[in-house]
């Protein structure tokens, strides 16, 4: 196939590099910054520097853009997309954008299949992209009313790129689970490093500090958009976390060792039962 990748940051760049390393597909790169495209071409990550009109050549299009930017891009350039082409995104939220992109698919004649690669780094940009970033990772597919054939095409493509698991979901389940597995840890890490103790941690910290604080090296613009787009599921998880922290806080204040042990043991048993 000819595959157009729109947005060559860490995720888009990794899609390009993975496609070139693991498949025989022809990759067209589309990006606002020309120098990034030239670097990708010289790296062999893409076969061609494209533009919006190049979308007419693509059998599949991967939108590696922020959620609202992905919608705006298709609103502006949907007229160039081939009838029957498969368009997917890579955004961390789905409920807000799936209806919009599905409707645009009906308008312009393409099949929109939502997707979300569960991989990343603390750093961003094309320079952080990696042909092996997706190896063994989970690839979530949100069909969004698309055909079984389109879902299979995307699933097969993900397996070609060495993703380890294909997970089929709907927008509501996706956003609820991502609030817990991805967004809540980013909130927790940021809240953690806002402590006045953080600036003095060196010499006092080891693995626990690194584990909890790692994702506080955050892209504030992207994650603030994701938090607000997924407001209700995230608030529900934040309130659950708050309640659990307050329960431990109350037990510590009351000098209640038995209650502390009960809460910690419940957490231990939950984690142990998962086999992780």
Question: What would you note in describing this structure?
Answer:
By secondary structure, the chain is of the alpha/beta class. It is built from 10 helices and 8 strands. The chain has helices at about 10-20, 35-45, 65-75, 100-110, 150-160, 170-195, 205-215, 220-230, 230-255, 255-275; strands at about 1-5, 25-30, 50, 60-65, 85-90, 110-115, 140, 165-170. An 8-stranded mixed beta sheet has the order 3-2-1-4-5-6-7-8, sandwiched between helices. Helix 2 (about 35-45) links the parallel strand 2 (about 25-30) and strand 3 (about 50). Helix 6 (about 170-195) crosses helix 9 and helix 9 packs across helix 10. The longest helix has 23 residues, at about 170-195. It starts with a strand and ends with a helix. The mean pLDDT is about 95.
């Amino acid at each position: 196939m000819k595959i157009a990748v729109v947005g060559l940051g860490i995720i888009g760049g990794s899609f390009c590099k993975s496609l070139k390393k693991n498949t025989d597909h022809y990759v067209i790169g589309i990006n606002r910054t020309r120098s990034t495209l030239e670097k990708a071409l010289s790296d062999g990550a893409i076969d061609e520097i494209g533009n919006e009109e190049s979308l007419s050549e693509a059998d599949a299009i991967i939108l590696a853009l922020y959620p609202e930017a992905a919608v705006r891009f298709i609103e502006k350039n949907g007229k160039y997309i081939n009838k029957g082409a498969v368009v997917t995104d890579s955004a961390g939220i789905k409920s807000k954008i799936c209806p919009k992109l599905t409707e645009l698919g009906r308008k312009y004649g393409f099949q929109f299949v939502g997707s979300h690669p569960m991989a990343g780094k603390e750093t961003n940009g094309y320079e952080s992209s990696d042909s092996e970033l997706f190896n063994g990772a989970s690839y979530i597919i949100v069909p969004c009313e698309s055909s079984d054939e389109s879902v299979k095409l995307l699933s097969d493509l993900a397996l070609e790129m060495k993703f380890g698991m294909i997970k089929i979901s709907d927008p509501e389940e996706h956003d609820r689970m991502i609030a817990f597995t991805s967004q809540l840890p980013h909130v927790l890490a940021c809240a953690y490093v806002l402590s006045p103790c953080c600036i003095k941690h060196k010499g006092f910290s080891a693995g626990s500090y690194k584990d909890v604080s790692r994702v506080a090296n955050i892209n504030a613009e992207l994650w603030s958009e994701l938090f607000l787009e997924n407001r209700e599921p995230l608030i529900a998880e934040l309130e659950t976390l708050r309640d659990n922290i307050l329960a431990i806080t109350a037990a510590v204040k009351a000098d209640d060792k038995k209650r502390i042990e009960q809460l910690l043991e419940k957490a231990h048993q939950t984690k142990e039962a998962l086999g992780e």
